[in-house]
Amino acid sequence: MEHITKILLLVFLAITFIQSGLDKIVDWKGNLGWLKGHFSETIFKNMVPLLLGIILLLECVSGVLAVAGAIQFATFDSSSLALYAAILSCITLLLLLLGQRVAKDYDGARTIVIYFMPAIFLVFLLQ
Q1: In 3-state terms, what secondary structure has residue 103?
Q2: Residue 22: CB partners within 8 Å, gap ≥ 6?
Q3: In sequence order, which residues have a C-beta less than 8 Å from that of residue 10 and are 6 or more positions away?
Q4: How crowded is residue 122: how many other Cβ atoms within 10 Å of its Cβ?
Q5: Per-domain boundaries in the chain
Q6: How confident is the model at residue 58 (pLDDT cuts 50, 70, 90)?
Q7: What is the pLDDT of residue 88?
Q8: Is 116 a residue whose pLDDT tops 90?
Q9: What is the DSSP letter of 47?
Q10: pLDDT beyond 90 at 78
């Protein structure tokens, strides 16, 4: 129970990113179509498939690292994978935030900040 806060935050990140990544895999066409419209008036309009792939990869790696970090905490009392998961999660969320801001979707950007707060708090706890 010594690391329960960190483990719970890692589980939060794992759920967030694994679910989001799986959604992108299962409904690639739907996500791509929506995002093409979302970014149609931005500098990203011709890069949507590439950027979606990058975000998909970052989300999946962040989620898997978060699971591995939680397991590592629970079994070995070590935090190296957890810190990598937290940092990569923050980077992923910052890229998502950039996209929302460029698209002028300020409500979407505000939602990203809600996810960023526990992720950056986890970085703080793991330093």
Answers
A1: coil
A2: none
A3: 66, 67, 69, 70, 73, 82, 85, 86, 122
A4: 26
A5: 4-26+55-126
A6: very high
A7: 98
A8: yes
A9: -
A10: no
pLDDT at residue 27 in the model: 98
Residue 1 pLDDT level (bands cut at 50, 70, 90):
confident
pLDDT for the residue numbered 14: 98
Phi, psi of 50 (to 5 degrees): -65, -45
Closest to 55 in 3D by CA, of 114, 15, 97: 97
Average pLDDT, the chain: 97
Cα–Cα dist 21/102, whole Å = 22
Q: Helices marked H in the chain — which ranges?
A: 4-26, 28-38, 48-76, 80-102, 106-126
Q: Which of 111, 89, 109 is nearest to 99 (CA)?
A: 109
Torsion of the alpha carbons at 119, 69, 84 and 91, rounded to the nearest 10: -30
